[in-house]
Design brief:
Layout (H helix, E strand, L loop, with lengths): L1 H6 L3 E4 L9 H4 L20 E4 L2 E2 L4 E3 L2 E4 L1 H5 L7 E5 L5 H9 L2 H4 L2 E9 L9 H4 L3 H15 L3 E6 L1 H6 L27 E8 L8
Parallel strand pairs: 1-2, 3-5, 6-7
Antiparallel strand pairs: 4-5, 7-9, 8-9
Helix pairs in contact: 4-7
Length: 207
């Protein structure tokens, strides 16, 4: 909403899980291309388009849900033209692996925001990755994040906010919290967090 209303960005929304009655934007009922100054709920100042489609590593249907690829939706876009936001509950790893195979498509992305989920095994993930031992799968996901740094730099994350709020291990009463699959030496979970990137060429790190 903010990118649409504040920055005038035409937005495409993709989600094949959330029921329409729970999401005015995905049902097409949110104000669209409207004056949002006094809007009480979700409102898009620049027109948006909702699609009942999920993001995955390949185009296919799983349990009646349609999945499409990021690369298909980047096709035809010029360099540094697109802001991508991904919160796909675990399919981001397979999607990012495909993206990393194509520098040309990476260069179409101006900014990237995403929420990562290290331990999630969603239906739309790469089937081979789902069968890996946990440690091997986690190491593979760490390498994906490291490879993103070849063409992007980190511009922010939610880790400090999470540390200060409920994800601080000190908030676990009587040490009854489960050990996260990925954590810092002090116990703070890194299993799920938000992170933002900007393309290196925008900060003078690539020609």
């Amino acid at each position: 909403e903010k990118m649409s209303t504040v920055y005038g960005m035409r937005t495409k929304l993709f989600d094949c899980f959330i029921p329409a009655f729970r999401s005015p934007p995905m049902s097409g009922m949110a104000p669209n291309g409207s004056d949002c100054r006094n809007a009480p709920g979700a409102c898009y100042g620049t027109p948006y388009e909702p699609y009942k489609i999920c993001l995955g590593p390949e185009k296919k249907v799983i349990h009646s849900r349609q999945y499409e690829t990021l690369l298909d939706h980047l096709e035809g876009r010029p360099p540094l033209s697109t802001h991508v936001k991904i919160d796909s509950e675990g399919t981001e790893w397979a999607v990012l692996e495909r993206l990393l195979e194509s520098p040309k498509d990476q260069d179409k992305i101006r900014t990237l925001e995403m929420e990562v989920h290290f331990s999630f095994l969603p239906e739309g993930d790469d089937p081979k990755a789902r069968l890996l031992p946990e440690q091997e799968r986690l190491e593979r996901r760490v390498r994906i994040m490291e490879r993103l740094l070849e063409r992007f730099v980190v511009s922010g994350s939610g880790l400090e906010v999470y540390r200060q709020e409920k994800r601080d291990p000190r908030n676990c009463p009587q040490l009854r919290c489960n050990e996260p699959v990925v954590h810092l030496p002090g116990g703070m979970s890194l299993d799920q967090f938000a992170i933002s990137y900007v393309h290196k060429s925008l900060v003078g790190l690539l020609p």
